[in-house]
Give the backbone structure.
Amino acid sequence: MSVAAAPPPRDAAPARDESLGSIFAALAANTAIAVAKGTAAALTGSPALLAETLHTVADAGNEVFLWIAVRRSRHAADASHPFGYGPERYYWALIAAIGMFLVGGALSVWEGITALIHPRPLEDFWVGVAVLVVALVLDGMSRVVAGRTLRRQAAARHVTVARLLRESPDPTVVTVYLEDSIDVAGAALALIALVLHRVTGSALPDALATLAIGLMLGYVALRLTGRNRRLLTNQAVPERYVQALRRRLVEMPGIAGVASLQAVYLGPGEVLVTADVTLEHCQSADDVAAAIERARTDIRRDVPAIARLQLTPVPRG
């Protein structure tokens, strides 16, 4: 069985380096953009720009949480965590998603409602336009970095980027990519709202854009929260990988069948597999031990993503 047909390849070291690169690129972009947007929001009085400022501040804070997630998940296994610290990444990514919802989504929706009730005049129009254009460029560049990382990971697993976004056991790059996508969409909405406010003289487009930005953030945050919750609660590896591993076990000399098999994520690029296997007839105790050890060694060599492989021989039937 090739690695392509196996559970996701254990790309722990490269994936973590790639994750950090995406995080640092997003953090640098969001910090610069947050300062610029905040200044422009104060000068123009645009609620959409204020919503974008809150959004970008939340994103910058999230990048710090994701950096903590990567650093803590890299700790080696010890007596208190014999399977390692991989779930740390899921915990801190969950905190980042909650922060996105509260700071970026909820506050933006509140600001949009306030702008509908109490419209504000538009000032320093060109400052707002310049800041949003720069934000579009910087957010777009950060999104390109995260997109390249996702495409490399998708190619390593022989899946599409869309499927990887649904299934990836590494929430950091997925979070950065989705944040950057919303950043680009939000900045474009705010720019359109600013132009419409200037052309029509109505503050309504600004308020509606603010609401739209908040709702987009809330939706993405809820999706990320659900994804990290599933990973924290020992989510199973996708069924196609489980079936491929079952077929590989049956091909091993001395193993006649697989009575049951479970595979769950221990962390990004790390999988725990437990299986009850039936053995061929007329095997001595030494033969049984040799067959189990041979299967364990060969499969872990072929599929480095399997950090733990526990095989238990059981009677047929």
About this structure: The chain is about 70% helix and 10% strand. The first helix runs from residue 12 to 44. The beta strands are 255-267, 270-279, 306-313. Residues 1-17 have pLDDT under 50 and may be disordered.
